[in-house]
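> Could you send the Nitrite/sulphite reductase 4Fe-4S domain-containing protein prediction when you get a chance?

Sure thing. Input:
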Amino acid sequence: MTVLTKTNSWNWDGEQVVVDGGKDALWGVVEQANGVWAILVDTPGGVLTAGQFAILADIMADGGAAVKFTRRQLPILLVPKDKVTGALEKLTAGGLRVASVHGSVRNIVACPGKGLCVHARQETLGLAKEINEAVYGAKLPWDFKIGLSGCPRNCSAALCQCIGLIGEPRGKFTIALGGKESGITPIHGVVLPVKVPREKVVPVIVRLLGLYSTLAAEFTATGELPEHPRLYHVIAKAGVERFIAVVQEEVEA
Ligand code: SF4
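Output:
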């Protein structure tokens, strides 16, 4: 079984994000076209406490340009380069982390779910946080998107994520793999013929990321897939049955 490789050891050297002395593209501290720097804040499900919001406000009050909230429910802090160090220190002191930008799991999207939405069948925001703890910093073949909806109304467009989960009755989730939301040819993921119990969601996702990484490495090494394949590329090559098998195995474990 493939074990996920994770990292959260990196530095901002005043010029760029570095890991082991070299430039690193995984972490969301990125220069923008206009010269302003963007800091992506890890906020699974798009949730911030009052205290965390105050930290973002403090960073903005100290020369920040603006906050941009993205499609993936995370705030991007736009700050001048000479304010990046201070902003990162304030985020860390407040228990906030930088989100990934490339080669890992992007900020996890979730609808309000049970406890907030009257239609919900399953809780989503706590689950998004749990998944994030398991996959934060995972090194993957390329960007990976996970989305959760608390019921089949599917407000989080879970079918257009690499892994999408949709709440069903009796503590289970429908799972879909290989969706894609961006570009001019969006793809609906394949809905698997197996439901995932709430307590199995995290181990199932970890197994799926491992299989994706293993197969992507194999296909890339043989030249059958170009560098940085997304999950839908790998599923198209390997067949979805391999992925169904590991989900089934983990659900029955
Ligand atoms: S997907 Fe369902 S639970 Fe989530 S916000 Fe929409 S209606 Fe509510």
